[in-house]
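Exercise 3.2. Students should predict the tertiary structure of the chain below and write it as structure tokens, then compare their answer with the key that follows.

Predict this chain's 3D structure.
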Amino acid sequence: MLLDWENGALAEGLHCYRTGQFFEAHEHWESVWLTCADPEKTFLQALIQVTAAFHHWRRGNYAGAMSLLNAALRRLESYPAEFAGLPVDSLRRNLLAWRQALAGGDTSPQLPIPVIL
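Answer key:
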């Protein structure tokens, strides 16, 4: 299945993610995730976990954010540097920086929200 980031639910979710509407991004992407098969299904699940992590972080649930970042990173391990038109390597690096900051007790890191596309 080709993931279309320019139209439909994936595009709507991407817009929500970029504007900090993490819960809404999660909802849009989940509607596509439900219809996918692997490897796209696991990849979308990782992205959904990223959105949920930042939703938890914004609400002050740092343990929940950390847990979801770890789960997303585990799922992204097996993907190449680029997948489905997205820069997976840079996403992994940015997620690792967030994980390191939160693990070190920095609950307000001066890091940008990782870019997905």
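Discussion points: The longest helix spans residues 40-58. Residues 8-103 form a domain with the Hyaluronidase domain-like fold (CATH 1.10.3450.10).
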